[in-house]
């Protein structure tokens, strides 16, 4: 069997982290290719349901990243997002969802190297944790269930 | 009880209100909500310890609003919901008459929402010791055990949405769970759909839930789903200084402090 390649979805804001990831590329810094980036106008727009959807669709890990506090393009989007993540992360942990698989970060447009480092460390964490089979089993419920009647 | 009936009669006769929302004797030993429009019918009104349904849920319903201005029989949990609804601009001083019931079953009529808020100062929301114990027990489990616990608890859910219907704060006329473009939550009541529905419901109540327990009471298969909101309430106490329904300070999730502390964003 070939080595496990984690699938990672990154939800990033347009103004900081997306530009930061762009800088990583233009600076020719190499980093893991396991990440699929989804761009949002702001971290405030990153609905927690999207994180669940990512896992439901087969992601093994999720990165959520945006502007540092006080740097939000819309002044306060990331402050609201931070509150939401605090509560959401606590709730997921309480429900037994593996929160080591969700990495929250602040990456500015100037931090190309930080983005590469963030992706690399997340990929290696998820590689150690293995595929998120607990969630996949629930998500593929119809494939495993025997229907009666 | 006579006091309540007399006051209700007065309110209807003077046409101050057109509708009384209260409790009446139901089937067996149960009580149920009653909607009284005629002064002669006030003798139906009762109040005792069996009246645990949260009547505030009716205040935002279009069918009820159509009837005119209501007066509502409101024990403490209902009063909390009324304040939270008012904080979310769903109610104003002129939109209802509140016939408050103190914990020792005395009638106390409120002229203004601010009075209710002051009255509630003496009844802080406390999570019961029994529930605290359960929360601690769950916290001590490994994540795998918790996952198994919740998947097992949630799997008999057949998505009747009684929890949503019973909750005074689930007043959206179009709920995310009813959306199908995109389909946020799968319609079928399989494990993934159930999990996503309950996470979503809990998150939508974060920083708003008054811990009235109506959702868990309404659940036909007794899923302890208010444990989720209780847990969030406990978390918020640590992070944002706790929740109480308030007309002024805004919901915890729609406000922020620039120096909110967390430990997990790197």
In summary, what is this structure?
The complex is a heterodimer of chains A (149) and B (266). Chain A is an alpha/beta fold and 149 residues long.
Features:
heterodimer; A: 149 residues; alpha/beta; Rossmann fold; 4-stranded parallel sheet; 6 helices; 4 strands; 44% helix; 15% strand; globular; B: 266 residues; 2 domains; 5-stranded mixed sheet; 10 helices; 5 strands; 37% helix; 10% strand
Structure commentary:
Chain A is α/β, with parallel strands linked by helices and 149 residues long. Chain A has a single domain (8-144), classed as Rossmann fold. In chain A, 44% of the residues lie in helices and 15% in strands. Chain A has six helices and four strands, in the order E-H-E-H-E-H-E-H-H-H. A four-stranded parallel beta sheet of chain A has the order 2-1-3-4, sandwiched between helices. In chain A, helix 1 (17-26) crosses helix 4 (112-129). The model of chain A has no long low-confidence stretch (mean pLDDT 92). With 266 residues, chain B is an alpha/beta fold. Chain B has two domains: 2-120, no CATH class; 129-254, no CATH class. Chain B is built from ten helices and five strands, in the order H-E-E-H-E-H-E-E-H-H-H-H-H-H-H. In chain B, helix 3 crosses helix 4. Chain B is globular. The termini of chain B are far apart. The mean pLDDT of chain B is 92. Classes of the chains: A alpha/beta (149), B alpha/beta (266).
């Amino acid at each position: 069997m070939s080595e496990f390649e984690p699938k990672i979805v990154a939800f990033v804001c347009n103004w900081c982290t997306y530009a930061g990831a762009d800088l990583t590329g233009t600076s020719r810094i190499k980093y893991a290719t396991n990440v699929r980036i989804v761009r949002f106008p702001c971290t405030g727009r990153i609905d927690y349901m999207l994180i669940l959807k990512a896992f439901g669709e087969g992601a093994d890990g999720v990165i959520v990243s945006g502007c540092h506090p006080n740097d939000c393009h819309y002044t306060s989007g990331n402050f609201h997002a931070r509150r939401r993540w605090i509560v959401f992360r606590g709730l997921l942990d309480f429900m037994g969802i593996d929160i080591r698989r969700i990495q929250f970060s602040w990456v500015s447009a100037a931090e190309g190297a930080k983005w590469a480092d963030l992706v690399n460390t997340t990929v290696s964490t998820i590689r150690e944790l293995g595929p998120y089979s607990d969630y996949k089993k629930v998500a593929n419920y119809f494939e495993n269930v025997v229907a009666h009647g | 009880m006579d006091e309540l009936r007399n006051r209700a009669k007065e309110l209807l006769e003077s046409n101050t209100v057109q509708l009384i929302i209260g409790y009446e004797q139901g089937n067996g030993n149960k009580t149920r909500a009653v909607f009284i429009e005629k002064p002669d019918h006030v003798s139906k009104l009762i109040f005792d310890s069996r009246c645990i349904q949260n009547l505030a849920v009716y205040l935002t319903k279009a069918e009820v609003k159509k009837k005119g201005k209501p007066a509502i029989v409101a024990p403490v949990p209902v009063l909390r919901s009324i304040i939270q609804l008012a904080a979310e601009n769903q109610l104003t001083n002129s939109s209802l008459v509140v016939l408050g019931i103190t914990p020792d079953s005395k009638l106390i009529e409120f002229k203004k929402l601010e009075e209710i808020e002051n009255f509630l100062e003496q009844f802080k929301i406390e999570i019961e010791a029994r529930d605290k114990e359960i929360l601690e027990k769950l916290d001590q489990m490994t994540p795998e055990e918790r996952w198994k616990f919740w998947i097992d608890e949630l799997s008999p859910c057949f998505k009747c949405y009684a929890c949503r219907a019973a909750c005074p704060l689930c007043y959206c006329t179009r709920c995310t769970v009813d959306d199908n473009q995109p389909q946020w939550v799968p319609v079928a009541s399989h494990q993934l759909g159930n999990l996503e529905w309950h996470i979503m419901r809990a998150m939508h109540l974060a920083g708003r839930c008054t811990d009235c327990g109506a959702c868990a009471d309404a659940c036909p298969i007794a899923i302890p789903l208010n444990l989720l909101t209780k847990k969030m309430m406990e978390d918020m106490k640590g992070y944002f200084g706790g929740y109480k329904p308030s007309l002024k300070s805004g919901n915890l999730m729609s406000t922020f402090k620039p120096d909110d502390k967390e430990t997990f964003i790197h």
